[in-house]
């Protein structure tokens, strides 16, 4: 397995790019650890597949270099990069048996038959297809075929990285959960470097130890699930992670005070922002207390979502969401307080840290 260095990578599909808008990837400059499980998460069109294809060698970046364990592989084709890939739709040989499909990548590299057998059996157990081992892949369901594709991605233990491009799209919801957990377990056991593309936050948060959030061709944050939840680096991460997402309210700042509409709140630090920056206050719905004390709100709607309720309200002319437990009392003249430790301040959409 390898450490992956993305050295100032930019990519434009068209010729002669002039501005940032012409780039599908604007600037990616990061180092991903050997053995890390990374999920690339972001909305459609943000550049996830472009970045994955640059790592796999299907695409040459317009600028920058890509290195595996310090070795420049930018000009190497996919076959020479020694990676395994699992795509959205099954890529298998219909006329081969399930067993032979899984054995193929190993036999192709001259692995001895007893070792092939040991590894194929391990994978068959994992993907739960042992009873089908001797059947032709033809005639299996889309679900089962995709499990074979996953198995083929995992069967070799000598690859630099395993790349997954939305591999669970065709898998039914229950099986999705099972396969995701198995992937996570395998990762712990074997320490593969894994890069997993998805636009589904649950999938990213359960699979990865580091989630790479992309937005408009940029990586806006790489963090653990709790870092993304507690300290979103960019307002987009705040909106995108969490359900409902973070409340982002226009705020005027003065030392350690923030004013939203006519209400002034005390912060537990004094954010430093450049003059003229667009400043906003971010607070997750889970960290707003509702009761008879604090700042007045107007409640518009209460949604029951099982163990919790989402209160949709208006605060100083802005829509906000508040998450409370199902047994919480919501007074008619409701008021709110924000937990100061959970407030994030943003200048031009980027978080202004306590350290800054
Ligand atoms: N072959 C191509 N030629 C021109 N533009 C492209 C090409 N492939 C992608 N793009 C553009 O590059 C941008 C990034 O696309 P990309 O497919 O990497 O996004 P994505 O995050 O993977 O989206 P999705 O989740 O829909 O697959 C988009 O604006 C897309 O329209």
TrEMBL record:
Keywords: ATP-binding, Cell inner membrane, Cell membrane, Membrane, Nucleotide-binding, Plasmid, Transport. PROSITE patterns: ABC_TRANSPORTER_2 (PS50893). It is a peripheral membrane protein. It comes from the Bacteria. Residues 4-241 form the ABC transporter domain. The keyword Membrane applies. GO terms for cellular component: ATP-binding cassette (ABC) transporter complex, substrate-binding subunit-containing. One of its GO terms (molecular function) is ABC-type ferric iron transporter activity. The keyword Transcription regulation does not apply. It is found in: Cell inner membrane. Its main location: membrane. InterPro entries: AAA+_ATPase, ABC_transporter-like_ATP-bd, ABC_transpr_FbpC, ABC_transpr_MalK/UgpC-like, Mo/tungstate-bd_C_term_dom, NA-bd_OB-fold, OB_MalK-like, P-loop_NTPase. Belongs to the ABC transporter superfamily. This is ABC transporter ATP-binding protein. It comes from Rhizobium grahamii.
């Amino acid at each position: 397995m390898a450490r992956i260095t993305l050295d100032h990578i930019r990519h434009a599909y068209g010729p002669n790019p002039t501005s940032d808008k012409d780039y599908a990837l604007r600037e990616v400059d990061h180092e991903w650890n050997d053995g890390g499980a990374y999920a690339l998460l972001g909305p459609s069109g943000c550049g996830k597949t472009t970045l994955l294809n640059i790592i796999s060698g299907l695409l040459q970046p317009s600028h920058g270099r890509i290195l595996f364990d310090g070795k420049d592989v930018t000009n190497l084709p996919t076959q020479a990069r020694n990676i395994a890939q699992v795509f959205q739709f099954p890529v298998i040989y219909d006329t081969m048996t399930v067993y032979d499909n899984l054995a193929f990548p190993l036999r192709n590299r001259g692995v001895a038959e007893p070792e092939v057998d040991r590894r194929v059996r391990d994978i068959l157990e994992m993907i739960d297809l042992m009873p089908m081992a001797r059947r032709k892949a033809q005639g299996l369901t889309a679900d089962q075929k995709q499990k074979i594709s996953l198995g083929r991605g995992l069967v070799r233990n000598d690859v630099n990285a395993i790349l997954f491009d939305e591999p669970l799209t065709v898998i039914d919801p229950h099986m999705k959960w099972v396969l995701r957990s198995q992937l996570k377990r395998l990762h712990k056991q074997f320490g593969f470097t894994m890069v997993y593309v998805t636009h589904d936050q649950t999938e990213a948060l359960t699979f990865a130890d580091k989630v790479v959030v992309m937005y408009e061709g940029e990586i806006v944050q790489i963090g653990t699930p709790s870092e993304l939840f507690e300290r979103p680096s960019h307002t987009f991460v705040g909106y995108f992670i969490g359900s409902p997402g973070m409340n982002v309210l226009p705020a005027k700042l003065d030392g350690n005070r923030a004013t939203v509409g006519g209400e002034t709140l005390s912060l537990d630090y004094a954010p430093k922002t450049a003059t003229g920056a667009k400043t906003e206050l971010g607070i997750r719905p889970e960290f707003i207390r509702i009761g008879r004390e604090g700042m007045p709100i107007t409640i518009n709607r209460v949604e029951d979502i099982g163990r919790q309720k989402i209160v949709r309200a208006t605060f100083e002319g802005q829509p906000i969401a508040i998450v409370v437990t199902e047994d919480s009392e919501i007074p008619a003249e409701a008021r709110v307080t924000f937990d100061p430790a959970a407030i994030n301040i943003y200048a031009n959409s980027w978080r202004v840290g306590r350290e800054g």
